[in-house]
């Protein structure tokens, strides 16, 4: 029973993250207007707000205009639900929250190759919670250095957000886990980049992090 409740909490959070990311992309307020179809702007009825179930019943299409609801909505709702079922204590709760924050950043990055700067600071705060004050100082100095130096670098080989997530992951999971995580993320990135062009790397980093957390 507890697992079902946790799954519902998680999928609701996933649904919220998808809506927030969609509003970040369009520049709309996170709070207003109420949830609506992105194509015809019709407000959603109460049952269309139920995560997973509404997408399945609507078969991924708006009931009013027939516009496609992106499949990523269902994927994020199910994944967030599964992640919530892994919460057993305070540490796992913080890790799942950390994954949710970076998941939100990845959804924004995927469409705009940017994400809100507060995500890095908040997520790194979660990574640092069990560390000593000295590590806190070093972690914050790392993030500050990236913030100051990256805008001066004309053609960076890696995005500042990707590097911030790497610092954050390293602090959260340690060196060995970070190496395993990066190998899978790079393979995913290379597979996606084979079609050419610049890709947002944050989604690969997040998919790898979620995969390692669920499997390991
Ligand atoms: Zn519609």
From TrEMBL:
Keywords, sorted A to Z: Hydrolase, Membrane, Transmembrane, Transmembrane helix
Upper classification of the organism: Bacteria, Bacillati, Bacillota, Bacilli, Lactobacillales
EC number: 3.4.23.-
Domain of life: Bacteria
Organism: Levilactobacillus fuyuanensis
Limits of the Prepilin peptidase A24 N-terminal domain: 8-87
Top class in the EC scheme: hydrolase
Molecular function in Gene Ontology: hydrolase activity
Residues annotated as transmembrane: 90-108, 128-150, 170-191
InterPro entries: Prepilin_pept_A24_N, Prepilin_peptidase/N-MTase
Region forming the signal peptide: none
Protein name listed in UniProt: Prepilin peptidase
């Amino acid at each position: 029973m507890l697992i079902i409740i946790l799954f519902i909490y998680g999928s609701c959070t996933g649904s919220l993250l998808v809506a927030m990311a969609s509003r970040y992309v369009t520049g709309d307020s996170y709070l207003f207007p109420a949830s609506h179809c992105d194509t015809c702007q019709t407000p959603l009825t109460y049952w269309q707000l139920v995560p997973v179930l509404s997408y399945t019943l609507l078969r991924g299409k708006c009931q009013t205009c027939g516009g496609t609801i992106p499949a990523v909505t269902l994927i994020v709702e199910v994944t967030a639900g599964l992640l919530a079922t892994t919460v057993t204590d305070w540490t796992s709760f913080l890790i799942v929250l950390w994954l949710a924050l970076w998941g939100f950043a990845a959804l924004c990055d995927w469409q705009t190759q940017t994400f809100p700067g507060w995500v890095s600071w908040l997520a790194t705060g979660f990574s640092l919670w069990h560390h000593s004050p000295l590590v806190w100082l070093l972690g914050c100095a790392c993030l500050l250095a990236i913030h100051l130096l990256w805008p001066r670098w004309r053609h960076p080989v890696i995005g500042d957000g990707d590097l911030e997530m790497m610092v954050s992951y390293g602090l959260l999971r340690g060196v060995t886990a970070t190496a395993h995580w990066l190998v899978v993320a790079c393979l995913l990135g290379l597979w996606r980049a084979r079609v050419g062009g610049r890709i947002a790397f944050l989604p690969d980093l997040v998919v790898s992090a979620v995969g390692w957390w669920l499997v390991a």
